[in-house]
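A reminder from the course coordinator: this example appears on the midterm review sheet, so study it carefully.

Given structure:
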């Protein structure tokens, strides 16, 4: 039976090959590397793959990384490729890389490739194989002789390992010094043991998916095992064939075959899609963002059969949420369902993540002035900042600088800024609201910190400045803020303000009136209707209406764009403030004097004509 590839973990390339226990490759004993060279590993983990870059940035810390369906935990600097295990000022301390997922297959050999060893002493290296994820039940411990830039082989004393967890333990020492030293952990390969028993049966685990007419059998979620008379069981999922190859409407059983053994899989066939529905409570939606389906479950109905639809398979319309979005239509396979009952809000926070790197991707590593803008609402102006490629690479980095936060057509009611600390030196942070410092300077511990400000009831701020001191490098990890819209001037106030000077001069110009008409037409139909039916009184709108009616009554050439007629409120209904009365009396007086002057002129002209 062919040897199959189980798994490999990759570090730097290796030159020397050593068997477990330190047996060199030129040993008179059987050399597993040479005899198995033609066999492909059934699983390989190659840490030079940049997609396996971890989130932890400490040689003393650890993090999980998943590759090929297997989750690994590594102690070391996992933001590097290859992975690095080590540290500084170490005295015979263990650094570990281990699986958190068991290998179901029988493993006859594990090959570890290590790269360079940078000024670090590897006191010992061993592979621990266990039957439990906590490694409390150890199957075997295999020591090996370490050599940098080499591939090291681990084999069981007898038989093979199956359904096991694997842990590599490096015991390392680093002499005193200020910098970290490391061993590169580059690659691991797992090889399947050759079969010794007789193949007796094929079995599977998992539930078959709903099948689609006219498509190939969908084996997603199924794991197939070849079983042997010596008790061995092998994962052969990738080598099974199926009959029939194409699903028809009357298919009820699919036969799976591996070599000489088979098993039957009962299946259900879904017909045409008849409808889709949606259940759950929709999340709050944010203006300017795509619809967020979190909290919702979508189901496709194929006659009597139902199947859940992944969010990624759904399409949503509109694609971008606006302030007046009340219904979002979800579609799948030509069927739709409407989603309602969600709240729409302005974006009130912004947090940097790997997906947000475009926000500052054009920045260089040279410190300079930069401005970030979020959702058309917030601007953060950095007096000096940069984009780093190591350590803190997922958010802006600054030293001694100030960042000014300002809002468009809004004011702040709160702001919280969180930081990442690059170095552990002392640094302080100050916050200024509308020019005045709030509180004292904040200490900056090595683990990072945050500063925040919240307005008192009814208060708000136009701008907020965050100032950092000293020359340490820090990352601006996230901004969280709340805003209150700046009150907009009402149309009534605009009307009174724009006509004040014209009325005082006794002449409303066509230019002023045209501008007021344009502004009025921009109002909603509901707001326009309130002006059309309003009456003159001492409120702001009432004063504007009184003036509008008077002007329309006086200047026949001006358009009655409110549609009120010629003075429907009547001057006798006016109850104006003293200032408005004074202005109105002046207007009436000017109008009366004009009539008197015009009468005198015509009488005089008539007398001349009589002579």
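Designed residues:
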């Amino acid at each position: 039976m062919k040897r199959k590839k189980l798994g490999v973990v990759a570090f730097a390339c290796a030159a020397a090959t050593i068997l477990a226990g330190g047996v060199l490759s030129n040993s008179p004993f059987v050399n597993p590397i040479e005899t198995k060279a033609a066999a492909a590993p059934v699983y390989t983990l190659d840490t030079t793959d940049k997609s396996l870059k971890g989130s932890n940035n400490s040689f003393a810390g650890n993090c999980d990384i998943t590759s090929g369906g297997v989750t690994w935990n590594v102690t070391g600097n996992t933001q590097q490729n290859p992975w690095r295990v080590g540290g500084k000022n170490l005295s015979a301390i263990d650094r570990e890389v281990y699986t958190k997922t068991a290998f179901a297959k029988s493993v006859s050999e594990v090959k570890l490739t290590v790269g360079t060893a940078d000024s670090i002493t590897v006191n010992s290296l061993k592979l621990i194989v266990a039957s439990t994820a906590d490694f409390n039940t150890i199957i075997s411990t295999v020591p090996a002789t370490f050599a940098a830039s080499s591939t090291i082989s681990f084999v069981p004393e007898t038989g093979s390992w199956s359904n096991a967890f694997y842990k590599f333990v490096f015991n390392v020492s680093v002499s005193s010094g200020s910098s970290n030293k490391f061993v590169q952990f580059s690659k691991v390969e797992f090889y399947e043991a050759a079969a010794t028993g007789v193949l007796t049966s094929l079995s599977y685990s998992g539930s078959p998916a709903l099948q689609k007419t006219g498509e190939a059998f969908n084996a997603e979620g199924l794991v197939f095992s070849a079983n042997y008379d010596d008790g061995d069981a092998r994962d052969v999922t990738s080598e099974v064939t199926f009959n029939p190859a194409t699903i028809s409407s009357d298919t009820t059983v699919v036969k799976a075959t591996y070599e000489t053994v088979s098993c039957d899989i009962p299946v259900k066939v879904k017909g045409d899609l008849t409808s889709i529905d949606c259940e759950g409570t929709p999340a709050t939606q944010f203006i300017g963002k795509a619809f967020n389906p979190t909290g919702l479950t979508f189901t496709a109905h194929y006659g009597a059969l139902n199947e859940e639809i992944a969010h990624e398979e759904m399409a949503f319309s509109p694609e971008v949420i606006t302030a007046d979005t009340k219904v979002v239509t979800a579609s799948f396979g030509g069927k739709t369902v409407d989603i309602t009952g969600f709240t729409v809000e302005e974006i009130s926070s912004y947090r940097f993540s790997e997906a947000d790197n475009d926000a500052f991707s054009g920045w260089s590593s040279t410190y300079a002035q930069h401005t970030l803008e979020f959702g058309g609402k917030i601007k953060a102006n950095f007096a000096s900042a940069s984009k780093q490629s190591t350590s803190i690479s997922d958010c802006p980095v600054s030293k001694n600088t100030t960042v000014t936060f300002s809002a468009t057509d809004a004011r702040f009611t709160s702001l919280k800024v969180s930081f990442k600390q690059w170095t552990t030196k002392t640094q302080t942070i100050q916050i200024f609201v509308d020019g005045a410092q709030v509180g004292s300077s904040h200490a900056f511990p090595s683990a990072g910190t945050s500063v925040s400000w919240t307005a008192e009831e009814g208060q708000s701020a136009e701008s907020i400045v965050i100032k950092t001191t000293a020359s340490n490098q820090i990352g601006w990890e996230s901004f969280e803020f709340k805003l209150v819209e700046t009150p907009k001037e009402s149309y009534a106030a605009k009307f009174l303000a724009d006509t004040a000077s014209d009325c005082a001069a006794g002449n409303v110009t066509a230019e002023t009136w045209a501008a007021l008409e344009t502004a009025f037409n921009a109002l909603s139909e509901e707001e326009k209707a309130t002006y059309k039916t309003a009456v003159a009184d001492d409120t702001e709108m009432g004063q504007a209406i009184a003036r509008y009616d008077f002007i329309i009554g006086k200047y026949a050439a001006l358009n009655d764009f409110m549609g009120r007629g010629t003075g429907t409120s009547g001057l006798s209904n006016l109850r104006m403030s003293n200032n408005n009365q004074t202005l109105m009396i002046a207007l009436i007086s000017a109008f009366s004097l004009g009539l008197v002057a015009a009468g005198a002129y015509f009488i005089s002209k008539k007398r001349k004509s009589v002579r």
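DSSP finds six helices and 41 strands in the chain. Residues 1-38, 567-588, 605-611 have pLDDT under 50 and may be disordered.
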